[in-house]
Structure to design on (350 residues):
């Protein structure tokens, strides 16, 4: 086969994880077999480029790759795995000289991800409130618990803090009330340097807001869906509008947003280079179970070679393709999806 023919046939695969390969921490039948078709049986090295993209977050790509590798008994490299906040790595340079507020479940998680990604100056949500407890009396007021006037233990003044330039939501925090209050406070200031009797109020929004994972809800153990980051964002937007009269300007990461698909394409192109293909993949197959994220995002980029494949093993189980967001292909499971791709690309799957 000539180099030109090889280039023409270059393709990549993007797997969603939950509902496609794993459900409740257990492999979906045929998942490991499907991945086995993509590696060399002797060396176990990938024959074709593929990556894993989840809208989950709060963990590093290395941690996620390790966990998924273990469940599926299939080795996954760290740079073959994307979580919702992976494309936020590109923000490190932008905010090199400023402080950023990082929001996640704990100070420890934010600190870990800041180190992994390389954020030089950062403050976690939990740290920020602890240093300025007057901002969230619901938690820190002694009047409610002890019946005495609060004497807040203030640990930080605006003079020993770098100005904020951005708020970055990495994952849903445990205390939504605290998170909403602080984000609305900081987003209406010029610099996030808040003191008990002081806020440098802005006339227009001067603090950038970046949010990983736009999903309103996810399927939990309970029969009704559970709210997550997208729902929290709706609360923040509503209260920011009430306070300022303005719409909150924000950037979403994760599926179905373009930034995530562009980053995924870059990772696949890097793998292709290792396999001696110099140009980016001509076709990228996105296998997912969620029409509103996995399929919608790929359908939006059809003109750039993306092809969507919906499986029946996750949140969409109907006999028929989704009526409003139809995938290019609708198959039973991930094994059928991979076999279909190899057929479409004229590769022998045996
Ligand atoms: Mg899924």
């Amino acid at each position: 086969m000539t180099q030109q023919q090889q280039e023409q046939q270059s393709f990549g695969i993007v797997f969603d994880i939950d509902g496609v390969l794993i459900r409740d921490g257990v492999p979906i039948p045929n998942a490991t077999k499907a991945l086995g078709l993509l590696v060399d049986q002797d060396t176990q090295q990938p024959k074709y480029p593929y990556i894993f993209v989840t809208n989950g977050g709060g963990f590093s790509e290395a941690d996620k790759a390790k966990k998924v590798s273990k469940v599926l008994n299939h080795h996954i490299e760290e740079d073959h795995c994307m979580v919702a906040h992976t494309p936020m790595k590109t923000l490190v340079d932008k905010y090199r000289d400023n402080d950023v507020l990082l929001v996640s479940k704990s100070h420890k998680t934010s600190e870990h991800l800041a180190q992994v990604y390389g954020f030089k100056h950062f403050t976690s949500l939990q740290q920020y409130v602890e240093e300025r407890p007057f901002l969230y009396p619901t938690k820190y007021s002694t009047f409610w618990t002890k019946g005495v006037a609060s004497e807040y233990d203030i640990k930080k003044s605006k003079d020993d803090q770098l100005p904020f330039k951005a708020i970055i939501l990495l994952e849903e925090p445990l205390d939504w009330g605290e998170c909403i209050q602080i984000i609305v406070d900081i987003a209406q200031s010029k610099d996030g340097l808040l003191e008990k009797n002081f806020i440098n109020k802005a006339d227009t929004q001067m603090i950038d807001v970046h949010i990983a994972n736009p999903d309103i809800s996810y399927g939990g153990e309970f029969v009704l869906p559970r709210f997550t980051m997208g729902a929290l964002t709706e609360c923040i937007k509503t209260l920011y509008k009430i306070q300022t009269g303005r719409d909150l300007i924000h950037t979403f990461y994760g599926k179905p947003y373009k930034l995530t698909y562009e980053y995924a394409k870059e990772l696949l192109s890097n793998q292709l280079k290792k396999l001696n293909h110099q140009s980016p993949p001509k076709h990228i197959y996105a296998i997912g179970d969620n029409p509103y994220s996995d399929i919608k995002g790929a359908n939006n980029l059809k003109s750039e070679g993306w092809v969507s494949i919906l499986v029946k093993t996750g949140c969409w189980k109907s006999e028929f393709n989704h009526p409003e967001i139809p995938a290019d292909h609708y198959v039973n499971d991930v094994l059928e999806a991979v076999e279909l791709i190899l057929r479409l690309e004229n590769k022998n799957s045996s």
Observations:
- Residues 16, 18-20, 288-290, 314 surround magnesium ion (CB under 6 Å).
